Amino acid sequence: MEHIVSTLYQDPDIKVEKNIHLTATGSNSRKREIDIFISKNDTVKTIVECKNYNKIIDVQLIDAFFGKLHDINIPTERGVIVSVKGFTDGAIERATKANIKTLALTGLSDDRLSIKSDNALQFIIFLLPSVVSMSVHYKNPVPNV
Predict the structure, then answer these.
(1) Over the chain, what is the mean pLDDT?
(2) pLDDT recorded at residue 107
(3) Packing angle of the helix pair 89-97, 59-71 (nearest 10 deg)
(4) Which residues in 91-101 are b (16+ Cβ under 10 Å) and which e?
(5) Percent helix, strand and coil across the chain, each rounded to 5?
(6) φ, ψ for residue 83 (rounded to 5)?
(7) What is the pLDDT of residues 28-61, one digit of tens each?
(8) Beta-ladder partners of 40
(9) For 76, which DSSP code?
(10) Domain range list for the chain
(11) pLDDT(130) > 90
């Protein structure tokens, strides 16, 4: 899923790093894993948490992401959490209250995941920190022509 999300940010001026570890604020050794770290000119733009779980994301995972952002001193409005199964109403409410963006990439089967990674959303998302919520649903495969 990190590959799909990172393709949304393909641009020469944007640096996308996957699966990096940042030291927690006030700690010399404790690290926090970041799924996707997006920056431009060495300035943090967005931190993306990818959840490829077999269940809908609930409020507890939003709270955990909120804590991670706080722990590495990243403003919550720079946080995006992505799920392949979607979010409960409570999770969306909590994310909205915390200024965390939600992105649901539902309906992508394993075989269609790699296909859609090449053309997912066919646009570059530069302003994702201003998006409150987004959903993408793929129900039926497109027949080969």
Answers:
(1) 77
(2) 67
(3) 30
(4) bbebbeebebb
(5) 30, 30, 35
(6) -135, 145
(7) 888 999 999 988 887 877 899 999 888 999 999 9
(8) 43
(9) G
(10) 2-137
(11) no
Radius of gyration of the chain (CA): 15
Q: Which residues contact 72 (CB under 8 A, 6 or more apart)?
A: 22, 23, 24, 25, 32, 34, 47
pTM for the whole thing?
A: 0.70
Percentage of residues in the chain having pLDDT higher than 70 = 66
Q: What would the CATH number be for the domain defined by 2-137?
A: 3.40.1350.10
- What Å distances lie between residue 39 and 16, 43, 70, 101, 126, CA to CA? 7, 5, 18, 17, 11
Per DSSP (E only), the strands in 41-141 are 43-51, 79-83, 101-106, 133-137
Residue 42: DSSP 8-state: T
Say what the pLDDT of residue 64 is.
Answer: 96
**Residue 50 and residue 136: Cα distance in Å, rounded?**
15
